[in-house]
Specification:
This protein is of the alpha/beta class. The chain is built from 20 helices and nine strands. The radius of gyration is 23 Å and the shape is globular. The two termini are 42 Å apart. Helix 1 (14-23) crosses helix 19 and helix 17 (355-362) packs parallel to helix 18. The strands form three sheets. Strands 4-5-8-9 form a four-stranded parallel β-sheet, with helices on one face.
Length: 468
Amino acid sequence: MKPFMDKDFLLSTETARKLYHEYAAVMPVIDYHCHINPQEIAEDRKFDNITQVWLGGDHYKWRQMRSNGVDEYYITDEASDREKFEKWAETLELAIGNPLYHWSHLELQRYFGYTGHLSKETAEEVWNLCNEKLHQDDMSVRNIIRKSNVKLICTTDDPVDDLKWHKVIAEDPSFDVQVLPAWRPDKAMNLEKEDYLSYIQQLSKVSGIAVGSFAELKEALRRRMDFFASMGCSVSDHALEYVMYAPASEDTVNEIFKKSINGEQISREEEMIFKTAFMQFVGKEYHRRNWVMQIHYGCKRDNNAFMFRKLGPDTGYDCINNYAPSAQTADFLNSLIATDELPKTILYSLNPNDNEAIGTIIGCFQGTECAGKIQQGSAWWFNDHKQGMIAQMTSLANLGLLGNFIGMLTDSRSFLSYTRHEYFRRIMCELIGGWVENGEYPEDYTALEKIVCGISYNNAKSYFDFDL
């Protein structure tokens, strides 16, 4: 029997162990998509206890606690941090086979030196150990980032954001990790939302453009893109239900936009027409600016209306949506490449059944600007577990060039989540090592080093053209 999560965790062959320990493990981290708060980096926050850094805002853990019958009082309500931690410990010991079990214990090992396992019985020991460590200077936010070997972070930022904290970080010579904004204009696109007019008024104010038409909306967004670019932004991100393609004339799109800001009801068909035009506009702007377009889709959000009214979005009530017409995805990309305005693009679907569709779509639109111009993104959200990662990488290998894959991201709100890169790299090395051991790829370590180090770090550095 193998020891619990030892140095060769998830590595079952000699080749896998060599690939991980000699190549993958020593590569730095580029976290090109996450949801951490730049203010906490700017202020170099220190956490009072493990609950704050582990359970604050982590809806992955909240879902599992609810699945264990834990009352909301101990999850998002007024229970003490100690009580919330104890409920999480009781839950975690039942999470066999869940990535949260592995992630949590990797974090305990790497940041707190704890090699046991967390359970109801060990909760007090772990609570005391972690809190003692967190009170030390080397466990401030910036030092956690440093000890994680992170070189660059892209946060997730709305066009109306002032990017104040990014400026503070950039002007601080004592911190050498780049923290860049990433453009996330979902609120500017989602004209079906009740608060859309309020958002447009806010955008008008910060852009200096009185937005009353689609043309003025585009000009306001261009001005904000200029500002984001001045702050080092070169990455965008979009959360879509699916990648739609419902083209219409500029006049039709403008009429739909005006209906929305005038408080009139928008039909589903009109919504898709507007969003198609919006995505075509931003895609062409990204191409002009050499920005990367990330598109996350396949999620049905806020399914529990009762809890949404109580807690709001991003609280653990989302699920996989199985509607993503690949024909429309291809047509959308084709509409951009037809005028040579297709930017570097990364497609992520929350539905693993879309892996093969994405793998075939991306092969239709590659370019010479860089290797792997159109990418399939890493296994995302409900798929960033062992089997999900294996499925995504195997599908990509089957249908494309795995060696050009840009690898893992945290997609997290926690500063301890950088161990997800380790988890991914171990799984990747086990997968590739297995192919070598089975005679499916030669034992050519020059080529294997290029592939493993590329997927771990080098490909992302080159793809995003980061100055590192």
